[in-house]
Every structure is written in structure tokens, then in C-alpha cells.
Amino acid sequence: MRMEQPQFQLMDEDQLSVELIDAQYNLKKTRGQKNAKSLVILVNGIELAGKGEAVKQLREWVDPRYLRVKADKPQLAGPKQTLWQPYARFIPAEGQIMVLFGNWYSDLLGSAMQAESPLSDAQFDEYLQEMQAFEQDLKNNHVDVIKVWFDLSWKVLQKRLDAMDPSETHWHQLHGLDWRNRKEYDTLQRLRQRFTEDWFIIDGEDEQQRDQQFAQYILSALKHCPDHPARAKGRWKQAKIPEQLKHPSKTQAQPEDYKPELKKLTAKVAKAMRSDSRNVVILFEGMDAAGKGGAIKRIVKKLDPREYEIHTIAAPERFELSRPYLWRFWTKLQTDDDICIFDRSWYGRVLVERVEGFSSPVEWQRAYAEINRFEQSLVKHQTVIVKIWLAISKEEQAARFKAREDTPHKRFKITEEDWRNRERWDDYLKAAADMFEHTSTEEAPWHIIASDDKHTARVEVLKAILKQLQAE
Amino acid sequence: MRMEQPQFQLMDEDQLSVELIDAQYNLKKTRGQKNAKSLVILVNGIELAGKGEAVKQLREWVDPRYLRVKADKPQLAGPKQTLWQPYARFIPAEGQIMVLFGNWYSDLLGSAMQAESPLSDAQFDEYLQEMQAFEQDLKNNHVDVIKVWFDLSWKVLQKRLDAMDPSETHWHQLHGLDWRNRKEYDTLQRLRQRFTEDWFIIDGEDEQQRDQQFAQYILSALKHCPDHPARAKGRWKQAKIPEQLKHPSKTQAQPEDYKPELKKLTAKVAKAMRSDSRNVVILFEGMDAAGKGGAIKRIVKKLDPREYEIHTIAAPERFELSRPYLWRFWTKLQTDDDICIFDRSWYGRVLVERVEGFSSPVEWQRAYAEINRFEQSLVKHQTVIVKIWLAISKEEQAARFKAREDTPHKRFKITEEDWRNRERWDDYLKAAADMFEHTSTEEAPWHIIASDDKHTARVEVLKAILKQLQAE
């Protein structure tokens, strides 16, 4: 939807400043409240249209301590990450405001205009769709995304170029486009038209009007802090609990088979992961004592310790809680680690957070789609995702808990909380059933592995990884 | 002191593994306790001596989820940062273990051996001293630093090179040194001899012995978790409170003088900061309502919003509390921001934390030296530090608090806590007096600026910045 561009009126500057600061502090106070939000302001446009000046003026009117500005070096679209990924770390916490000069749109335009290998319109639109989906997830998670395009007609742009001191050409020229080249200008304008209609367009010709239009627009965005929907729509339809979860198979591997096979598979998995040009993400979920640690040990046994990263996911920190739920995973997956193993994962949202009430029904019910989109974008950008649920029976868990309590050097592994969690056993099974139902996708299916017998489980985990690496 | 290399004995592998895991979990449990610590393991050595293999073996014996490994690309020593700075973000939280393959020592050796511009012995030793000071600060702040050198004689190295498949030359070759060159080998060994004596040297010739020596050494380090000293030594000598703090001057700028001078100074400061090749760090301390926000606004008024970063320092997060106090500043100053402004700063340790009892006497008394070392290393690596204390009188603060309460759009700025802090006024003055006494150094002096009159204060702040930028 195109934003209503209201009848524009200049405001008294002092009044505008007072209102902005007021709104800024009100935003700050929403942190942790039911109307909490943060603001990302994406600033793009034609060179010399004055986006830098408008932000400068805005930062003078507001309290500059609570409006951060980032101007990253432009990046070209590459096969191995989404365009928004490098900027994920700048997503502000609730109550905060972040202006991004360099952002996923400037990178997209830059990539599309690249002389050597311009993007096709189809590719361009595909990237746009990916960004929109990401922005929708941001909005659902209390991050407002404000997109402003500073425009300038060809005529005025040329006049401004004429008036420029050549020594003043700045480092922030948009990807070194030639602003004297009419064809390039037209191409850029044509591409920009493909953006969604929720951009706010500001004509940069009149400087005073430009700065005020921008600031007033930000003001209206700051003032708009509605309460988040509290209740989920409709009734939740519980999926049926798979038999393998209720009664995991107890087949035991024969000891004489086990060792050589495990050894062979371990080497094979290491080789397969190492030689795969894609990144590999392996994640484990399952009840306590299901054997996640042991399975991980086998996966990494033949790897060099510098080749992989293990993330053990515990309760989020305060700074993570005030950002979109997936944020701590977006930022964890930005590194160059080719092989990432997660001991528990983003599925915490629909497992422990659902069962323990740490997230509201509206939040965990929304999470399935968010997680699917997230995984799809990873897969699309050359990542293999292997999702493993280790299924043990309630009796076997009890036996392992007791064995841990009886073994001096394993006693640390068992706490009161573990016993408490057991009481929620059936709730966890229900949550797991819904999770399989909604997130077992073609590109990232779940592998449910019976693990009452540790040896069989380890072998099956390795086989699942191999299967998925070769399946695609 | 050279570590005692005890009579070495091979242990049963299973036993070693059990003991390591046990010690690992004990370390984890120290988090937040009086014997809390974390472990950084620096791994360096001769190529093919087997440091990778030894760490791999260690990670098999321990629970790999709780032993992280980082192998960063080597960096050469540059003028603008200390060698440890790029690695500061990897400093583990209490209870954690981090192995660093790439680290400040590999970078130092790489820089020293650089064919084009090798470091002189004097430069080398200077870097070494800087690292030692840093490591001492880590140790004082509960981060144990374990340094292991994997050694290999020239003869064995050559034999191993002979046996190598040429296609197996790895990416982790140490800075592309030529390991067939005897002279280079000798130079490296000569340089390594200059290291301090707290390195643990492992001969890489015998593989089994190598792995066990390494693991047993880590085991002994893990087991050693003594309580931190609780009490400060000796009596604290309170510095005299400067007259300017007790009774800040109330001289008012004449309104007709003020505006043009402020404008001129604002432009001059912006120009000076921009044209200075060094980084600029400006920090503000002072009582609530002393005018920090207003002063910052004037400093940045003529800057492009992309040129500077403002850090507003509030209470630390949990993940920051479990690391050395200065950690959150080390990591904040790693960016390429040329101009950084701190609204409150690392001096919180000796101000609010001291007064409110958030840090123990032994911690805040130690902090003066830590802060001085930190600032010295910044100054040495081309950063100007401007430290400003805005001094207001108790009456003026009361007047400002009341004015805020009476102004609707400023009411948010004043809370119960602000009034409570006032009751500690004298304690804060004492803490400030000690801070000036111990941290006003030649390279980073304190500027105490009377700010009962806001206009005068803003002018004086700008003058102080100019003075310090030109003074050096």
C-alpha cells in the first residue's frame, strides 16, 4: 500500500524538536511493554538528493544519543548469503532507533546495476520478495521498518553536479554509479519503481521541505506504538503424536557390528561435509538425556577442531529477548563457519517456550512460518540443514537420570529441573508433534531417531546426515 | 617463571577423559561464584608439530560443546590497534574455555618475520610487554591465559616435510613461512625465546606423548580454581576533593558573546576531528543533569551522522558481567569509527560501581591501573582521548530536576532513582576526587568543567577538545 502522503505543512522547528524528543523517549519506555517496538529507518535515493543532510538535521532535532546511524560499505549479492544477513546485527532492540544508510536495498540496486553481471528483472524481484518476507518477520516481531527514498529529477541532479567542487565527491557515492549518465539514471529509477509501495518518497529539491518531510514522517512512525495482538486467531489444531515418539524402537545394534560401522560412517560423514561446497547446519532437539552430546561427539570426531562450530543454546540474554526471536540465530549464522552444529536450536520457540509459557500462543503459532522462511532462505543460499530429533522413552530417560546420579563424574549433568521437566513429558510430545507437522519441509525434513539404544542412535544420526547431504 | 614441567606419565585415556570432563563441568559451575574463572588457551608453534592434532584429541576427550575453538586469519601489526584487540571478542565468559589458534602471538611472530618490514627486536619486545600487561589484566579479571608452544626440531620438521603429500599443504600454514629455510626457522626460534617464561613447551615428535602432555596440562589448569582475593590490601587513601567540584564556578557567558563563539567553535571542533589522522574518543562523566546530552549535541552538530558513534553506557548485561570489566569497551572500540563519544564510560567502575557497592574494593582499587593501561594502549595506537567531567553544584542539580518535573516533555528524564542518587552526593565527589588523582595522566588528562551555566560549559567543552587535539 502506498503511504498516504498527507497535506504537508512546515512546523515550527523548536516544536518539531520537542515532539521528536518526546516521541523518542516514549519509544524508549515501551521496552518490555505490550506496545514495545523499535525502528529501523532505511535511507536510500539519488545522489545529491540530500539523504545525508536530512539525517543530519534529524539527528540535531532528536536526542542524538538514542538514534544510531550505520553506514556500512556496500556489498554485492553473493550466492552464500541473503542480502539482509550482513545487516541483521544492526537490528535495534526494543525502544531503539537505527538509521541504515547502507542496507539491503542499496546492495540490491548496486548488484543490479553492476556493469559486469547485472541482475535480471526476475532475479531482482526474487531478492525483493526475500527482503519483504524478512521485513514482515521484523514487523511481526516489533521492529518497524521505515523506508525512505530521496528522489531528485535528472535536471536538478545535473544542476547540482555542475555546482559541485570536484574535490568534494564523497566516499558515499552510491556504488560508483556515473550520475552524468542518463541511461544509468533511468535504469536506477526504473528498478526503484519495482520496489513495494510502502516507500516514502521525498523530493530532494527543496532542502527545508525535504528535512521537515523526513522528520515529520519519522515523528509519525515514532508516535505509532499500538499494542501487540494478545490472542491467537482461532483454535489451535493439535497434531497427532507420532508413534515413534511415544514408543521409540528399542532395536539394539549388535556390538560386533557397531564399532566398525560407526568408524566407517564417522569418516564418511567428515569427508562428505568437508567436500560439500555448501555450508552445513546440523541441529539436535529431543528430551533431556536423549544423547545429543554423544551424537555430536561422533559427528566431529574426524574433523579438525578449526573446521566446525558448536552452538549450545540456552535461555536467551536480555539483549536477545528485546529483539526478534530469530535474531540470535541470524547473527550466529553470519560467520564463515562451514559446519555449524546446534545443541538445541531455534525450535526452542515452539518447544520449551511454548510448553513453559515463555512465549504467547500468538508468538509460537507464528513461529512455524518464520522458521520455515528462515530455513528456506538458508537452503536457497547454499546451506544444508539437517534436523534431528532424538526420541527416547520415558523409562529410558528415568534410567539415564538415575545412572547419572549414581556416577560421581556425571552427577553435575542432572538437576532438580531435569526431574521437573519430566512432569511435562506429554506437553513436550505434543509440541514436538506440532513441530514435525508444520516444519518438516521438503528442503529441511526432520529425522526422528529412536535413541533408547545409544549405539543404534549414533549410527542412525550419521546415516541421516549422509542421506541429506547426498539427497540434494 | 618457567612452569615446573613435572615428571611426565601417560595416563589411561578413559581416565583422562573422565577427569577432563569432570573438571570442565566444575569450571562451568564456578560461573558467578567467588572462584569463577574462564580459560583462554593460546596455541602456537612450529608447523607440523601437531598443534591441530593435539587440540583435536583434546576436544575428543572433553565435552566438545564446552570447549570452543577459533582460528582467525592472521593479521599483521598495524599502527591503529594493539595486537590483542581483534581477539578481545573471543575472551570467554566465566566457566567457558576458548582455544585460540590465531592469536596475538601468531600475529606478532608473523609481523616480526615479514620479509618486507620485519620488526626490530625493540619493537618486538614492546609488543610483548603490551601483551603481558593485557594478559595480566585478564588474569586479574578471572581469565586464565594458558600459552602452549608446540616445538619441533629442525631435523624432525624436515623429515615430516619430506613425508608430506604436496597437495596437503594446509591453509593454516603459519603466515606462509618457508619451513625449508633453515634461516627462517632459526629466526623464529630465536624470537620465540624472547617470550616470557610462562609458556608450556611441548615437543611434537612423539604424538601420543604430545597429546597427553597437552591434555594433562589443560587438566591441571582446569582444576586450579582458587577463590579470588576478597579484601583489598592496606587502607585506601582518600584524595582531597578539588574545590572546583565542591563549588563549581558560576560565571555566566554574556548571551551576546555566546552564540557566535559557540558556532565558531562547533565548526572548528568538527574540522579538527575530521582532519586528525588519529581516532578520537571523547568521554563524559558527571552528576545527573550536569548537561552531558547538551554538550554532546554541540560536538556533533557539524558532523555528518555517518562520521561518529555515540555510546550511552548503562548497566552491563549478564554476558558482560561474566567477563573482565573492560571487555565491553575493548569490543566497542574495535570498529572503524573514527570519532566515538561516550555518555558515561569505563569510569563507571570507580564511580557508580564503587559508590553503590557493585564492585568490591579490591576490584575498583585495581581498576585505576587497568584503566590507565587501557588508555595508554589506545593513545599509543593513535587515539586521542578527551575526558570531561561536568561539575555542577548540588543546588543547580536540584533546580534542574525540578524544572524537568515541571516540563511535560522532559518529565521522562527524571526518576525516583535520580533523587536517590543525590543522597550519595558526597560519596560521588569522593569517588571523583580519587579518579582524578589516579587517572589524570599526561596522555589523557581530565578536564573538569564547571557547568552550572550551560552556555559556558558548552563553550569550555569545545575548547577542551580543541586543546587536546592540538596539544599532542
TrEMBL record, chains A, B:
Transmembrane segments: none
Pfam families from the UniProt entry: PPK2
InterPro entries: P-loop_NTPase (IPR027417), PPK2-related (IPR022488)
Superkingdom, taxonomy of origin: Bacteria
Positions of the Polyphosphate kinase-2-related domain: 15-223, 257-471
Name of the protein in question: Polyphosphate kinase-2-related domain-containing protein
Organism: Acinetobacter lwoffii NCTC 5866 = CIP 64.10 = NIPH 512
